[in-house]
Write a structure and sequence with these properties.
Largest sheet: 8 strands, mixed
CATH class of the largest domain: Alpha Beta
Helix content: 25-40%
Bound molecules: S-adenosylmethionine
Number of helices: 11
CATH architecture of the largest domain: 2-Layer Sandwich
Length: 355
């Protein structure tokens, strides 16, 4: 029997404390008070709830889209220890007690050891999916509350077996979108902006919110990885940076390079999107993003907050609260979301826009 008294929460290795603080706060908001177990650099946190079923309450009631440091989650029970041989047979009694699911994902921690398990996970997942289809546990229905069966594998003999609501969990295995680095892009940072769009902008809204032929300002743009993404959307970009921009990008004719201080620059006409990847104190960037959106200089802002070495969760909360306070003072409806992206390091990426 699975008691669904535990959550497995995946995060960037090194950010386990932040993920633990986040789930503790967010679960408390829905009345679940549990405790965390974590190992530094493991890429995941366990959150144990007081009663069976509590973990299902958390994944149902807490909005996954509002989580920052948690990349993927699932409600589960105790760690399953399996012996070599018929592992599926050993899991079958447990799986029989599970609700029906519409798909199966087999995941592992985003660590060197975790990545070594990828081939095992793929093979085990395909054999298990076949077994589940035959036994009627994997069903086709696409109900709004559909569940996904998730395995979180620590070793061939050790795994957590859980569930997550399909619409309230990461839309990619391990919470990592597989993006291909575009060869022409001048820096690897380019993938940060692309990933941010995938997390924050529903596909159906791309044409309206990142409009082809639209306008953008890129603050701290050099050498041009983020500008490249905007130009790739056929946008006209003002790139603000004292440093040099990539020549090929400038030859596109869609980029105007301005050598000014990013924190003093404001466009003459409102733009569709402002993006900012300047390495600065996060609070300064947060204030600037609020100024841009409230001042009507852009329809939305995507900005990176570089986190300090210590008190990273607290710093994140205070920057986001500061923006929320500014929006509340102005009496406007807005969307503010933040995520530590797979392509982010000691930083998080945010989006802010008026509704
Ligand atoms: C992390 S890099 C940006 C990388 C860029 N997003 C890309 O994808 O290629 C940060 C940039 O911010 C610029 N920068 C730092 N402080 C700045 C300021 N006050 N005004 C304008 N640019 C600044 C730096 O020159 C640097 O090029």
């Amino acid at each position: 029997m699975n008691e669904f008294h535990r959550l497995v929460l995946q995060c960037r290795p090194g950010f386990e404390k932040e993920a633990a603080a986040e789930i503790t706060d967010r679960a408390a908001e829905v009345g679940i008070y549990g405790y965390c177990q974590l190992e530094s650099q493991s890429g995941y946190v366990l959150f144990t709830c007081p009663q069976s079923g509590d973990a299902r309450v958390v994944v149902d009631k807490v909005d996954f889209g509002s989580l920052i440091f948690i990349r993927q989650w699932m409600a589960c029970g105790d760690l399953q220890h399996l012996e070599a041989g018929d592992r599926i047979g050993q899991l079958s009694a447990l799986l029989a007690s599970y609700p029906d699911c519409i798909e199966l994902w087999v995941e592992q921690p985003d660590t060197t050891e975790g990545r070594e398990l990828v081939t095992f996970c793929r093979k085990f997942g395909s054999a298990l999916a076949q077994f589940l289809r035959k036994s009627g546990k994997l069903v086709k229905s696409r109900r709004a509350q559909a569940l996904r069966l998730q395995l979180f594998v620590l070793a061939g003999s050790e795994m957590y077996v859980g569930v997550a609501p399909v619409v309230n969990s990461a839309p990619w295995i391990n919470g990592i979108p597989r993006l291909k680095f575009p060869k022409q892009a001048p820096s690897r940072s380019t993938l940060k902006l692309e990933e941010a769009w995938h997390w924050f902008v529903p596909v159906k809204q791309w044409d309206e919110r990142i409009p082809l032929g639209g306008t953008a300002v890129d603050l701290g743009a050099a050498p041009g990885g983020w500008t490249w993404q905007l130009v790739n959307r056929s946008m006209f970009v003002t790139a603000v940076d004292n440093g040099p921009m990539n020549d090929e990008l400038m030859e596109s004719g869609q980029v105007t390079h301005v050598t000014e201080d990013a924190y003093q620059f404001f466009p003459e006409k409102p733009v569709d999107m402002m993006v900012c990847d300047v390495v600065e104190k996060p609070v300064r960037t947060a204030i600037m993003a609020a100024d841009w959106v409230l001042g009507g200089y852009c329809r939305e802002a995507v900005f990176n907050l570089k986190l300090p070495m210590k008190q990273r969760y607290q710093e994140t909360q205070s920057c986001l609260s500061l923006i929320a306070d500014r929006m509340a003072e102005a009496g406007v409806a807005y969307e503010l979301r933040a995520k530590q992206l797979y392509h982010d390091r000691e930083e998080i990426t945010c989006i802010l826009r008026l509704l």
